[in-house]
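Thread: quick sanity check before group meeting

JM: Hey all, I'm pulling together slides for Thursday and realized we never actually wrote out the predicted structure for the chain we discussed last week. Dropping the sequence here so it's in one place. If anyone has concerns about the input, flag it before I start.
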Amino acid sequence: MLVHGRVLPAMGESAGLRLPGSIFAVYHAAELLPFALGGLLIAALGALVPAGWAARAQTATALRTE
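JM (edit): ok, ran it. Output follows.
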């Protein structure tokens, strides 16, 4: 959000445009929280299958597949 707030106005000024404030305030911090939690949930669910395989695999088998 910080980079967006710095880069977008600079791009507009370099093009000779004055961009309205509504372009900068796309999301508020409270609206980004569900996105962050959803990303964490997807990452955790995606890690369960490989973690389950690794927990059941024997050490020698896991080393051979590396």
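AS: nice. The radius of gyration is 22 Å. The chain has a mean pLDDT of 85.
JM: adding both to the slides.
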